[in-house]
Amino acid sequence: MSTISSAIAKDHRELEQYYNEVINSTNHDHQQRYGNQFTWELARHSVGEELVVYPAFEKYLGAKGKEMAESDRKDHHQVKELLKIFQDLSSTDPRYLSKLKEIWEPLSKHIKEEEEHDLPALEEALQSHQDASSKMATSFGRTKMFVPSRSHPSAGEHPPFETVMGLLTAPFDHVADIFRKFPDQTVSPNPSTK
């Protein structure tokens, strides 16, 4: 049985792996595939957190949780703005690696803050609510199946507007993913397995 913290941390490790695959390679095809995978996972992860985790911060942690959620939403917006530029670049573009590094700097700080402070506080608050953390992890995984796979910063970071925009843009993203290259020669990542 997974907790929400372990589900989030798993995504964070995958993002780090994809980032390193791009940064440590000189092969443009490899960089493009893993850059697409990085974009796909980060877009879905961010919206999943905004729809499932941040409302839980507000619900279970009171005023402190609202403050944490707003701070994290601001972090996400900054990263989404940068990701919007990166996702449209080709790996042959001279800005490709520098733009990815520009994303990673605030993202890695955000990841550290979430894992060291925000998620432990949430897990502690959830201890008195039987199976809440594992149910939230399941909801987070399911949510990621239906959200956009590209960055859309104009959708915002607050439900319900973000939910509506996500449901409208996700099908277009998923169709376009068919024409993008991903690792292991896959045509498109399968959201039902992530």
From TrEMBL:
Q: Which organism is it from?
A: Emericellopsis atlantica
- Pfam families assigned: Hemerythrin
Location of the Hemerythrin-like domain: 4-122
Give the protein's recorded name: HHE domain-containing protein
Q: Which domain of life is it from?
A: Eukaryota
